[in-house]
Amino acid sequence: MATMDSSITTTENYSAYYNIFGNLFSDCNNTSVTAFSQAFLPSLYSIIFIVGLAGNGLVVFVLLKYHKTSNMSDLCLFNLAVSDLLFLISLPFWAHYAAISEWTFGSFMCHSVTALYMLGFYGSIFFMILMTVDRYAVIVHTYKSLLSKHRSARASIVLSLFIWALSLGVSLPAIIFSQVKNESSAWKCRVEYPQATMWKLVSYIELNILGLIIPLLVMVFCYSRIIPILMTMKSQKKHKAVKLMLILVIVFFLFWTPYNIVIFLKFLYQLGYMNTCLWDQDLNMAMQWVETIAFSHCCLNPIIYAFVGEKFRNLFLKVLKEWFPLCFGHCTTIESEFSERMTSTVLCKSIQPS
């Protein structure tokens, strides 16, 4: 165990709150930050875990049960849900870590949970990019897409494997450098990059570029080309499609921009700018809030990408009808009769003059 003198000379005083990308080196007192994380993070992470697990689990179940083809759109949606599930599985461990300020799961689980976290994090972002590019190719380059239709299944599988390999490659540094150490009579699991190297600074830049700049540029470019084409089509559903695409960009921007701003400020902090205890405390506190906001985006993915779509929504109702026939079977029957005949007795009574 390191002595107090060695701890002072290395100036490594970590807050109890775990930050997967490394904590700030400082001698500042982060007691208030630790107290906040112990009180609120377990509850917030638990809510995200439960809601996200239910939504993404339903997406995976429906796609496995009813979708027999391997087209790019369905495969991207499936892998996006799997990425979110991997990410969500790691949250209970971080919630427990934040609650007691000590890692109790051992070194192997530190590497494993970090791997789940990072693979889910980057996998979710990369599959959103792939889904956006696929929509761009289908709508903007329709004829080329039709010519390669016979290769779509094979190409979809190859691209999906490439995305997973890319996610693993980007995640490897954090997975490799994650470790468990005994500090202040408590075991800590964190990513500790080698001293006197650029690994930490590179990780911050990597997060900003791969986590926000590239996805946002791709989404803005693709949807700026897709929306004008949809507007020229004589379809009643074009406005709904345009609205959905705008929601995708806006929601992604709102949920991930605060997180990336704080990451950039931490990058500046590592360079020596704003190097004060006040900034240290403010950044650690802000990171907890913006991480929670960003993490909750995986709960919205099933709603945005799946449940908004009419085809998937019908399959979802079909699943509920099979699971709960007494309730949803009756409800879906009424809904079907209403949409096809408009002859419900209740509706007839409601339109009769008083």
TrEMBL record:
Keywords: Cell membrane, G-protein coupled receptor, Membrane, Receptor, Transducer, Transmembrane, Transmembrane helix. InterPro entries: CCR1-9-like (IPR050119), Chemokine_rcpt (IPR000355), GPCR_Rhodpsn (IPR000276), GPCR_Rhodpsn_7TM (IPR017452). PROSITE patterns: G_PROTEIN_RECEP_F1_1, G_PROTEIN_RECEP_F1_2. It comes from the Eukaryota. Residues 55-305 form the G-protein coupled receptors family 1 profile domain. The chain crosses the membrane at residues 44-64, 76-95, 115-134, 155-177, 201-223, 244-269, 289-308. It is a multi-pass membrane protein. One of its GO terms (cellular component) is external side of plasma membrane. GO terms for biological process: calcium-mediated signaling; cell chemotaxis; immune response; positive regulation of cytosolic calcium ion concentration. GO terms for molecular function: C-C chemokine binding; C-C chemokine receptor activity. It is found in: Cell membrane. Gene3D superfamilies: Rhodopsin 7-helix transmembrane proteins. It holds the Pfam family 7tm_1. The keyword Cell inner membrane does not apply. Belongs to the G-protein coupled receptor 1 family. This is G-protein coupled receptors family 1 profile domain-containing protein.
